[in-house]
Design goal:
Blueprint: H1 3-12, E1 19-23, H2 27-30, H3 39-43, E2 52-55, H4 57-63, E3 72-75, E4 77-78, E5 91-92, H5 96-101, E6 106-111, H6 118-133, E7 139-143, H7 154-166, E8 171-175, H8 181-186, E9 192-195, H9 203-215, E10 220-222, H10 225-228, H11 233-246, H12 250-264
Parallel strand pairs: 1-2, 1-10, 2-3, 3-6, 6-7, 7-8, 8-9, 9-10
Antiparallel strand pairs: 4-5
Helix pairs in contact: 9-11, 9-12, 11-12
């Protein structure tokens, strides 16, 4: 592995081998998502606790100050929307020249295994890896399921993650599943980070799946809505960070969460 690739990965994955990525790229297919109408304002109190920020070029240019110290994971796939026919109909929407101009530490794109557009999105990934490897830029593949959340089984996610790694992704973002998640991670030869998905009922639920996912081999998370859509985003991200980097259990993280809320009040 060349120095540039090593350097970029070391900015994303911390010395303890773990990572907390904060995605705010949801608008590329959802539009002005709740609590993300003004992305720059949303992240102000919480970005300091993240290890990297994931977003599109438009939001990076228009909403993020150029002196940000956090590494950028640039979302480079898109071309479909929630009101379109199929979320899986994505393509690469950002050139390698633009990726370099924006000084991204990594890029991310979705693959839709098992969809009508499987071949298209997998070829997109392969081409993106070819271009980014030339310049030492890591690619994170996102194992997307579109609207079909019932696909989130270990067998399916394991298939997606392995294919992404085989095509050259340096990191894979995938959903957590309660049964056999360790098989998903063990079958993927590159680091796995856990996606958050839709906001859940309680923060304890989030802490529990983050903790369990790490115990089963994930290196961290890529969580957005379960942080910035909550009533207490600072407490939420600090508690999640404690699980990832300070080895807190889910219950200890929940106690920290409640303590931080009480101190704020």
């Amino acid at each position: 592995m060349e120095w540039g690739m090593k350097n970029r990965l070391s900015r994303l994955i911390q010395p303890d081998g773990k990572a907390l990525f904060l995605p705010i790229d949801h608008g590329y297919f959802q539009g002005p998502t709740t609590k993300l109408e003004k992305p720059g304002e949303t992240i102000k109190p919480i970005v300091q606790y993240a290890d990297a920020l994931m977003l599109t070029r438009g939001v990076l240019r228009n909403c993020i100050k150029a002196n940000i110290e956090k590494p950028i994971i640039l979302r480079v796939s898109g071309g479909s929307s929630v009101v379109g026919e199929d979320l899986a109909n994505e393509t690469i929407i950002t050139s390698i020249e633009e990726i370099i101009r924006l000084n991204a530490s990594a890029v991310s794109m979705s693959i839709f295994v098992g969809s009508k557009y499987e071949n298209q999105t997998l070829k997109n990934l392969a081409r993106l890896v070819d271009e980014c490897e030339e310049y030492g830029i890591p690619v994170m593949a996102v194992t997307a399921v579109g609207r079909e959340l019932e696909k989130r089984t270990a067998r399916y996610l394991g298939l997606c993650c392995r294919i992404a790694a085989e095509l050259g992704a340096r990191v894979v973002k995938t959903y957590y599943c309660e049964k056999d998640f360790n098989k998903v991670v063990n079958g993927c030869p590159v680091p796995v980070v856990i996606a958050g998905g839709p906001k859940v009922g309680s923060q304890l639920e989030v802490f529990e799946f983050v903790y369990d996912g790490l115990q089963q081999g994930a290196i961290g998370v890529n969580l957005g809505r379960n942080i910035w859509q909550t009533q207490n985003p600072v407490a939420a991200i600090r508690a999640i960070r404690a699980i990832i980097h300070d080895n807190y259990t889910a219950q200890e993280a929940n106690e920290l969460f409640n303590k931080l809320i009480a101190e704020k009040d």
